[in-house]
Model the fold of this input.
Amino acid sequence: MDKMRRILVHVCKDRAAPQRAQFVQSITGHFGDRGDDEVEVNCSLEKNQFIISRADKGRGTPLKRPAFCPIKHLSVAEAAAIPLDVQQRGVDVGVAIILQTANERVLLTRRAKELRIFPNVWVPPGGHLEPDETLLEAGLRELQEETGLKLEPEGVSPKILGLWESVYPPMLSRGLPQRHHIVIYMLLLSSRSHLQLQASLSPSPAEVSACLWADSRLVRAAVSAVDGEDGEVLLHGLQSSVSVSQVSPDGALSDWALPLEALVSRAPVSGPDVERVSTGTKFALEVWLQTLETPPPDL
Done:
C-alpha cells in the first residue's frame, strides 16, 4: 500500500466512527451550535488521521474560525463552482510553533512574498504534518527548516494552545476557497533568551523574509487589531517602528526597522493583501497572553 502523502482532518460526532472532513465543510460549524465561531474539542492523531471530536465545556481545546470564514458563508452555488480537484483535497493539517523564550518573547516570521498562500504575512514557524510524525516532531522539523533553530524534544515543554480553521483566500470577497486547513498552535518553552536563540537563527529565504522576537506589549497591540472589526488598537508606549531581522536572498540577516503599522494592520476585504499578522496567529497569541497572566498552580 502506498504511503499517504498528506494527513487529513477526520471528524467524530456522537461516538460514530471518524469520517474524513469534506473541503467545503466547516469543522468549527460541525461541532458548534447556532453559528458558533468557537467550540471546545478533543483532538488526537491516530493512524495518520487527525481526529477531532466535541469536548465538554471547560475540558477541551479551543477550535476557532473567524466570523468571516469563507467556508461558513459559502453558498451552494459557490461551493459547486469550486474546481473538483480542490473539492477533493479534504482538510489539511498544519502545526505552528509559538516559541517562548526565557525572557517571554515569541518568534514571528514573515512569509516570503513568492509563496502562494498568505505571502508577506507574519506567522509563527510551521507547516504541514507529514505521515508518521507526531505533532511535536512536525513542529520541531518545521521550526528547524524555516529558521535553522534546532530544539530537542525533551527540553521544550510542549502545550497545545488551540486549533484554528484557516481558509485561503481568507474572505469570500477575495475569491473562492483554494486551501482549507486546521492549524494546531503549539507552545514551546525555551530555557534560552531571544538573544541566545538569535545567534543560532538561520532562516530559509525561500520561506522566510524577516524574523522578529515580539514581547507581550507588541503582541497585545497586534492582537487588538481584530480582523473584520474597527475597534481601537492598543499602541500605548510603543515606538513607531520595530526592530526585525531581514533575510536576504542568500540567507544573510540584517537589522531593519519595520513600521509598527505593518503589525497592527487588518486583513483587507478586497484588493491586494497587506503585510500584517495573520488572523489565526492573533488568535494563538491572544491565548498565549492568557497563559502569561495565569498564576502557576499551588505546589
